Amino acid sequence: MLVIKMGGSILKEGASAELVSDLKEIAKQHKIVLVHGGGVEVTEIASKLGKEQKFIMSPEGFRSRYTDKETIDIYTMVMAGKMNKQIVLALQSQGLRAVGLSGLDDAILQAERKTRLIVVDERGRKKVIDGGYTGKITQVNTELPNLLLEKGYVPIVTPIALSHDCEPLNVDGDRTAAILAGALKADILVLLTDVEGLMLKGERVPKIAATEVKEVLSKIGGGMSTKIHAGLEALNQGVKEVIVTSGTTKQPISSALNHQVGTVITSE
Ligand SMILES: Nc1ncnc2c1ncn2[C@@H]1O[C@H](COP(=O)(O)OP(=O)(O)OP(=O)(O)O)[C@@H](O)[C@H]1O
Ligand SMILES: [Mg+2]
Question: Is 0.85 surpassed by the pTM of this model?
Fold first, then answer.
């Protein structure tokens, strides 16, 4: 069983034919659950709707979208609508039985709303702001994905979670994939992105143990550090292997599973 996250960075033109045909081969041997990103598309469409997006920085250095009511509506439209359905279509076009879902459906992803956020402004000053519609996943309901997997469907999950008050919450795609992988007892988590893997000093790191990650974390920037943290989270929850790799090469997933490309993160 594999959980594969397709980064928004590789979905500008939807899921590529090369990626989907590889997925089709993999699906003959493994159950697959897909999770997707799409933040750039959300920002672009929000801007066309006259809603410029604001980004905030946490004291730990994580950048995230400030998600107010209007933004969560746009986020839901673009992510669970355009992005999710584009992937469904790409998979259907190659004969895969794709089913698009969000974390809201059957409460697959349940989250606690972050009531307050600590942010750092441009001058380095800390401020407390309202959390908006962002959440931390607290529970996964695996029943529906498992039901679909048993019947041979490929679920495609949009990272939107259900709050205790039945509101949609924006949750991070990498972490969603990690938590889903743990809950579904996946063997491997694959994070597909627009770079070869974890890069240090300009070179790809082919393999790194969880225990070695701490030493290099300070050298890893934005999008990649979220993946490394998500990877550690997945390993902690029993996933055996995490692979961060490019989604734009030939046979991107097969070659990553064979350890020919990408960065493999393991427990020891
Ligand atoms: N040490 C590093 N090694 C590799 N990539 C790094 C490193 N530090 C920062 N990055 C950045 O991380 C990016 C990947 O994360 P990013 O969030 O942009 O993409 P994604 O997760 O695939 O897409 P999305 O967030 O839309 O789902 C790379 O394009 C690269 O610029
Ligand atoms: Mg990202």
Answer: yes
CATH number of 169's domain: 3.40.1160.10
Indicate whether residue 8 lines ligand 1 (CB < 6 A).
yes
**Is 249 near ligand 1, meaning CB less than 6 Å away?**
no
Give pLDDT tens digits along the chain (268 positions).
Answer: 999 999 999 998 889 999 999 999 999 999 999 999 999 999 999 999 999 999 999 998 888 999 999 999 999 999 999 999 999 999 999 999 999 999 999 999 999 999 999 999 989 999 999 999 999 999 999 999 999 999 999 999 999 999 999 999 999 999 999 999 999 999 999 999 999 999 999 999 999 999 999 899 989 988 999 999 999 999 999 999 999 999 999 999 999 999 999 999 999 8
Q: Write the CB contacts of 65 (distance below 8 Å, at least 6 apart in sequence).
A: 39, 42, 43, 53, 54, 55, 56, 71, 75, 170
Residue 238: which residues within 8 A CB-CB, separation 6 or more? 182, 185
224 CA distance to ligand 1 centroid (A)? Answer: 4
Nearest CA residue ID for atom 20, ligand 1? 7
Number of domains comprising the chain: 1
Full residue range of the structural domain in which residue 226 is found: 2-266
